[in-house]
Write the structure tokens for this entry.
Amino acid sequence: MVEALSKTLTLAEFLQLPETKPASEYIDGQIIQKPMPQGKHSAIQGEFVPAINSVVKPKRIARAFPELRCTFGDRSIVSDIVVFIWSRIPRDENGEVANTFPVAPDWTIEILSPDQSQTKVTKNILHCLKHGTQMGWLIDPDEQTVFVFRPKQEIEVFDKLDAVLPMPFFASELHLTIKDLFAWLLE
């Protein structure tokens, strides 16, 4: 985790700054740059977004977005994947997907990178849940484990190959096991 600036800025000031690569997040008054994604992270992210969208997007149930900035609850975070129920996707005056998302996602998915703080990522997931997110996942490629977070419930741990991963209600038609998820690393 790299701290981009030591001076504390307001959220409004942060949002006026140019975007960085990799993205920077605004958390508790500090700007923290995310680590550069590596191979396992990119492979899972690259396969997971279309897997979700192939099930929920054609019926206009929901839509998955990679690396989308969401600003809410005095934080501005960039989860690896966020999913919004169709009716909650911010739109501009033309009905197109808006450029800014001032709301929490319905499902947030983080893929842990080797030099990323699991604590920071977990705090972002919990922040999302506190602001209306229905489900959060923390995927650990090195441990081949998925931690599933739900509001006001115990964290569930999935690490058995045949374990079927729980989905938010709107993505119930998406069926994925631990084996399926981590098989994307072999393709």
